[in-house]
Amino acid sequence: MAAFFVQSLAQAPEPPTDAITAATTLTQLFAIGINHQTAPVSLRERVAFADEALASALASLKSLSTVREVALLSTCNRTELYAVAEDEGRALGDWLAHHENEASDLQAYLYWHYDANAVRHLFRVATGLDSLVLGEPQILGQVKHAWAAARAAGSLGGQLDRLFQQAFVTAKRARTDTRIGANPVSIASAAVRLAQGTFARPEDSSVLLVGAGETIELVARHLSQAQVKRLLVANRTLAHAQALASRHGGVALPLAEIDRHLGDVDIVFSATASREPVLHRTQVASALAQRRHRPMLLLDLAVPRDIAADVGTLKDVFLYTIDDLERVVEDNRRSRREAAEAAEAIVDLQVARYVETLTASTRTAPLKRLRAHGEVARSDVLAKARQQLASGQDAETVLEFLAHTLTNRLLHAPTIALREAALTGDNELARAAEKLFPDGPGGETGTGEAGIGEAEQER
């Protein structure tokens, strides 16, 4: 599988010349990261971010001088940055590759998506089209969590906020209009299915669950449906283990007591948020001796990994990580390809609409600036006219002042620009002015040199 994971930076797509690029001259939209398709779990776990680390990571990213907006998505299968930034995203890539000075070799595994391709990537991720388990439902909640964390950290601006909101709409549309979410298969169900196909069938086995989060909850649910023989739940917070065990007919125990019970179990599912392994080689070796080397099935569903890698070298141990589930879920992929094609079409449509909307809003920016300029001039000149009336000046004189000054204020900037265009031979601006200011019957459209000077004095 090693070749499956390797994707060099040189293979990354070049920045496209599309509507978003044309609309933003200094900044671009980026999606940068690694996932189960480009990097093994040994690399992914080095750049996995626990929930409590998101705020500080986002603050660090936002402090980069080239970054305008940024969000961080970190799951067991991917770590990705979505950002509006300058410098072609180099600072973002360097930050991810060298965070905590641990993963300097990560650059070779990063993928980069720009502008419309970044939009498409996020929409596919939120829809479950880029997941290890095609159409898996948990990813949408994880994307929403990343969006909420970025909002709370103040690193989410208007452009990324609109992008994520549209991603949620796209995912909902895909799940409503296609069968991409029908009979969802999660990592948890795939892991239980793997166990059912081995020597340690749940209905004949004692099973230990380590953790009490969403993944372990799903594992427990699937084990209950498979009529597991005996279920133990271990967690650092005993109350959480007790709550989960009570829902699924299991027995709870503190994480510190794993060693006392490990020899009694045939299968271990582990998925905690620990940064370090919770199960080591010496513990498993001791359990095997107690079991007289009856085999054990260990399924590590965590990133970073919960079970030390060298446990897999023990005889009579069958250790599977989240990457090994790729084979298990291939059948799921085949059965959902037709639905996936329909979902891809929805994603393409939503990407086109998003780009069109963004381009339209950018094209109206000059009009908004023009109107804002006019409103400022109107408000300022009107305030001065009212002051003159309040001081007792003749109303006719004040009206003349208001009309003359407002006209000069509004036409000053275009007059200067047109004069410079005439001197430099900028015919395009002149033709635009002819469309914007056509001569009226017997009227003139510009101000003279005196008008320019008067406007300057008034300003």
Would you mind describing this structure in some detail?
- With 459 residues, the protein is of the alpha/beta class.
- It has 3 domains: 2-183 and 336-362, 2-Layer Sandwich (Beta Polymerase, domain 2), CATH 3.30.460; 187-328, Rossmann fold (3-Layer(aba) Sandwich), CATH 3.40.50.720; 365-458, no CATH class.
- It has helices at residues 2-5, 19-23, 41-44, 51-62, 90-98, 115-127, 138-153, 158-177, 187-196, 214-225, 238-248, 258-261, 281-290, 325-328, 330-363, 365-390, 395-424, 427-436, 449-458; strands at 28-35, 67-74, 78-85, 111-114, 206-210, 230-235, 251-254, 267-270, 296-300, 317-320.
- The strands form 2 sheets. A 6-stranded parallel sheet has the order 7-6-5-8-9-10, with helices on one face. Strands 2-3-1-4 form a 4-stranded antiparallel sheet, with helices on both faces.
- Helix 13 links the parallel strand 8 (267-270) and strand 9 (296-300).
- It starts with a helix and ends with a helix.
- Mean pLDDT is 83; it is low at 1-19, 21-25 and 441-459.
